[in-house]
Design brief:
Elements (H helix, E strand, L loop, with lengths): L1 E2 L9 E2 L11 H18 L13 E4 L3 H9 L6 E2 L14 E2 H7 L2 H7 L12 H16 L6 E5 L1 H10 L24
Parallel strand pairs: 1-6, 3-4, 3-6
Antiparallel strand pairs: 2-5
Helix pairs in contact: 5-6
Length: about 190
């Protein structure tokens, strides 16, 4: 599971499903991600031929920040799946968190229990987890051995919980950085 690179939005901006642009540092960040992905592929060589073997399938969120990284890493035609989008932030999309707090008291409750409460007219973490788990349940039924998933931080957190890498409690403390890779076994 590969997280997209940094985005070009002001610090403190709430974004989820909004198709925001990547940061000006994309080329360098993407090159680092590609290098790490190639390193991981070389570690896991085919057991009988002892050669590096590619992914059986590559998936991506349909949002540009994920597909652009997939393309840069050599996968220009990933299978797009909307279940791999980041959490839908509803009315808060593209709003400054501090400004939201001035007009929507729901955000203060959400800050206290973001693992359970919905954003205003948006999604909750359990809803995000449910759609990511549905994707992963289907993926487990496929004959693939190696799959790449280009997605978002929340999706990677869900994948880590699903695969038993860490518990839901304090799950976001395990969030990989922009362009980071999280290896899961299903």
């Amino acid at each position: 599971m590969i997280r997209h690179t940094s985005v070009d939005v002001p610090k403190g901006t709430c974004y989820g499903w909004t198709d925001v642009p990547v940061a000006a540092t994309f080329e360098q960040e993407a090159a680092d991600t590609k290098k790490e992905l190639e390193r991981l592929l070389s570690i896991h060589q085919h057991p009988t031929t002892n050669t590096q073997y590619p992914f059986d399938k590559v998936y991506s969120s349909p949002l540009t920040r994920a597909t652009k990284l997939a393309t840069f890493c050599g996968y220009p035609h990933p299978r797009l799946d909307s279940r791999l989008k980041e959490m839908f932030m509803g009315d808060w999309e593209m709003q400054d968190f501090d400004e939201i707090a001035k007009t929507d008291p729901q955000i203060l409750k959400w800050y206290e229990d973001y693992m359970h409460l919905e954003t205003t007219n948006g999604e909750s973490f359990p809803q995000l987890y449910e759609r990511v788990a549905e994707f992963l349940d289907e993926l487990k039924k496929q004959p693939y051995e190696r799959v790449a998933v280009f997605a978002h931080g929340g999706v990677l957190v869900c994948g880590g919980i699903y695969a038993g890498l860490f518990p839901a409690e304090n799950a976001f403390s395990h969030l990989v950085g922009y362009g980071g890779i999280q290896v899961v076994t299903l």
